[in-house]
Design a protein that fits this description.
mainly beta, Jelly Rolls, six-stranded antiparallel sheet, 6 strands, UGlyAH_Cupin_dom, RmlC-like_jellyroll, (S)-ureidoglycine aminohydrolase cupin domain-containing protein
Amino acid sequence: MFYNRGKFNMKYEQEKTFYMARGKAKMHSLSTSEVVEFEAGHLVTQPEGLECRSEVTKAVMMYIKPS
């Protein structure tokens, strides 16, 4: 999956795990105001129910684990 630079809101209806192969992004939790940064080489798990504002600062390519 590819994402170009930009900002957008996300809500995870179920847990999602992905490997970030390229790029850089920040996720701002809408419930806790926590900010987490991800970049190429990171394996990330987003919990079910997470609502966040994603900010892609360098175009991202990721591989998502099938549900």
